[in-house]
Amino acid sequence: MDAGGNTAAPAPADAEDLEATRLFGEEAGDSGGVQKDPPDPGDRDLEETGSKAKDQLPSLLSSLPQSETPSGTCEPWSPTAPRNSPTGGPENGPGGQGGDPSDEDWRSQRKHVFVLSEAGKPIYSRYGSVEALSATMGVMTALVSFVQSAGDAIRAIYAEDHKLVFLQQGPLLLVAVSRTPQSAAQLRGELLAVHAQIVSTLTRASVARIFAHKQNYDLRRLLAGSERTLDRLLDSVERDPGVLLLGAVRCVPLARPLREALGALLQRCTGPGLALSVLAVGGRLITAAQERTVLTECRLDPADLQLLLDWVGAPAFAAGEAWAPVCLPRFNPDGFFYAYVARLDAMPVCLLLLGTDREAFHAMAACRRLVEDGMRALGAIRALAEVAGLYNVPSANAPAYSVQAVGAPGLRHFLYKPLDIPDHHRQLPQFTSPELEAPYSREEERHRLSDLYHCLHARLHSTSRPLRLIYHVAEKETLLAWVTSKFELYTCLSPLVTKAGAILVVTKLLRWVKKEEDRLFIRYPPKYSTPPATSVDQAPHNGFFTGL
Amino acid sequence: MRKPDVKIVLLGDMNVGKTSLLHRYMERRFQDTVSTVGGAFYLKQWRSYNISIWDTAGREQFHGLGSMYCRGAGAIILTYDVSHLQSLVELEDRFLGLTDTANTDCLFAIVGNKVDLTEDGAAEDQEKEEGSSGGAAGSCVSAKVPKQVKLEDAVALYKKILKYKMLDEKDVPAAEKMCFETSAKTGYNVDHLFETLFDMVVPMILRQRAEGPVQTVDISSYNKQPKPMKSGCCA
């Protein structure tokens, strides 16, 4: 039950990372088994590393094809493989079916994320098929357990332009292998998000119990179908870094009267045991109403809310009314809520009702009908459809605005998170940013911008030397990042802007945000009080599978 | 609001095609579906009746809710994959226990899906499956897989279920009538499955109405007169 507690605490990273590097250096030196290949020819630009590790780490990846076991030995690890075949195809990422570590495509990915069990059994890989990666994952397990045997925990390895970040969460080991400029702390944040995603479908207690019961359990059996959710999560980090960097959710810009009317509507339509009502469109928040006691006692973490927003955006909820258990890892990693999810009036607008009563489906369905009726009375459906881009905005399912709206020439993109919200609003950390437009329409450009934001974020929040303001002239753009007691802001400007011009643009932007804040943010998150669920839900089995 | 008159639940291991079956019946087409999360609720108008259908997730992680989906069910469709023997075994091992909360007179249908994938083909029957692996290899062009589950296996399971439920074979529909082989992909036998079942639950609805409201009190339709009883039941 104490799963995950030990290594999870984000301690000051740098010291331990260096330690890990040293340890790994020793390990590789001692065993010598891993270093078969010459260093990867691509890995030239080194940034910081222990001298020994420098030569050996690229070989972690490159040596694996040689030590790869014949496919026959992989068989016992994949009892579910044949039955996965109908869904297996599309679930494989851009890495394709192969996923052979010797495959150039596979190796040239910017960032790999792996999830494996303590016993070294593969659970998830961002690219390629986990079957082909069993040897790679074996090496990771070896690294982790070697350091562990010395009573320590490996946190990160810096190898030329690659960073390897390890995160142990209970019986699960998560590994990121990245050549993006993201800091180890940021990568760790991503791994935590991946872990939270897994916990949300299984609960931490269940994962711990499964592995306590059977150490070599194949968790993929339980996670089948969740791979795509993990893929989407990791994609969104690359494409839309604001959510994870700022620890906030993004709202659909909406006129305040309409948003408040919708909030009031959610407040009215409640039932026993209801804890949270969310209206969302295209993975973005329209409004969310929370139960009062849940709110004051345990704040809803933005990471949990974002998880729900991603979850309800999944294609599995496209039809019918769904009823499913879901765990909010930050709120309580060991218990389930029960979620009612439905699209309203065949629109992309999605209603999520989260409660504690596992039998409350019909009560929740009645709630939904009330919400639908109320929305029709408000005429909100059409307004939301417009927001959702059904009628005129070409970029559907991305309800957003253009940076042109700010009216500050030279401004290309920004992320803005207000920090000056009164305390009773803070349970809903939010940020805003415009749609990415040219020149950030292609993937490489988006990655570049995402990398730059990550760099600036890492420097602003550096544990050893935090900064308040950074003016950064990059090759193709100029960036200005600024954190005050009132906001955290990242702006991307044209490369030709002068320092004085940049200040002017930022001043203009801040004025615009102030003017628009009622539309951009949920200013007064609605609350309600519901009687507790009639059925006692904290039954001992809650959070466990009865099927196991 | 339309109040469901009877509840039908689809159960079965993951990837046997529960969602596809339902989708084929409701939308008249086959499409690649994604793994179901929890359960999805649909309301189907059949004659003058409202039939609620629960499409459940086959993944073990959602078993906790299985008994909730089955509570008060009038019919349960146990689905397996004809090309995958284990999926039939799972029905008995994992899913039968979930049906304990269903109505006492709950009907059981056992459905072998994906017959389009097997060498026997959709239209073929059982007679020649012994020799089919050899014989069909020549006639089949596309990559077919051997059929792993015979209809008799499903019939045997049906009889086991009756034993489990302590029902007399004479009181329930015959096994032959309740075991189906379907293909959500081609649509083979799908309508037949659902419509046979719907026809069978109608008398249950009528019986329930005659007995008056039981167990549950529905507040939302309290002030609404229930539908005239006899309308549209002249099948």
TrEMBL record, chain A:
InterPro entries registered for this protein in UniProt? FUZ/MON1/HPS1_longin_1, FUZ/MON1/HPS1_longin_2, FUZ/MON1/HPS1_longin_3, Mon1
Domain FUZ/MON1/HPS1 third Longin: where? 410-517
GO cellular component labels = Mon1-Ccz1 complex
Q: Which residues form the FUZ/MON1/HPS1 first Longin domain?
A: 111-233
Give residue spans, biased composition: Gly residues. 90-99
| Domain FUZ/MON1/HPS1 second Longin span(s) in chain numbering | 277-369
Bias (Low complexity): 1-13, 56-67
Which residue windows does the record flag with biased composition (Basic and acidic residues)?
Answer: 37-55
Task: Name one process (GO BP) from the record.
Answer: protein targeting to vacuole
The segment annotated Disordered runs over 1-106
| Database matches in PANTHER family | SAND PROTEIN-RELATED (PTHR13027), VACUOLAR FUSION PROTEIN MON1 HOMOLOG B (PTHR13027:SF13)
Q: Summarize the protein's role.
A: Plays an important role in membrane trafficking through the secretory apparatus.
Q: Would you identify the family this protein belongs to, as annotated? A: Belongs to the MON1/SAND family.
Query: Would you tell me the protein name for this molecule?
Result: Vacuolar fusion protein MON1 homolog
From which source organism is this entry?
A: Loxodonta africana
Automatic annotation (TrEMBL), chain B:
User: Which compartments is it annotated to reside in?
Assistant: Cytoplasmic vesicle, Phagosome membrane; Golgi apparatus
Query: What are the alphabetically sorted keywords of the record?
Result: Cytoplasmic vesicle, Golgi apparatus, GTP-binding, Hydrolase, Lipoprotein, Magnesium, Membrane, Metal-binding, Nucleotide-binding, Prenylation, Protein transport, Transport
Topology of this chain in the membrane: Lipid-anchor
NCBIfam families tied to this protein: small_GTP
Please, which domain of life does this record's source organism belong to?
A: Eukaryota
| Cited InterPro entries | P-loop_NTPase (IPR027417), Rab20 (IPR041836), Small_GTP-bd (IPR005225), Small_GTPase (IPR001806)
Keyword Nucleotide-binding (UniProt):
yes
Family, according to the entry, reads as follows:
Belongs to the small GTPase superfamily. Rab family.
Tell me which cofactor or cofactors this protein depends on.
Answer: Mg(2+)
GO terms (molecular function) for this protein are: G protein activity; GTP binding; metal ion binding
Query: In the UniProt record, what gene is named as encoding this protein?
Result: RAB20
Gene Ontology CC: one annotated term: Golgi apparatus
Catalysis: reaction(s): GTP + H2O = GDP + phosphate + H(+)
Q: Which SMART domains match?
A: RAB, RAS, RHO
- Name of the protein this chain belongs to: Ras-related protein Rab-20
- What's a Pfam family in this record? Ras
Which BP terms from GO are recorded? Answer: cellular response to type II interferon; phagosome acidification; phagosome-lysosome fusion; protein transport
Give the PROSITE patterns listed for this entry.
RAB
- Entry EC no(s): 3.6.5.2
Q: What is its main location?
A: membrane
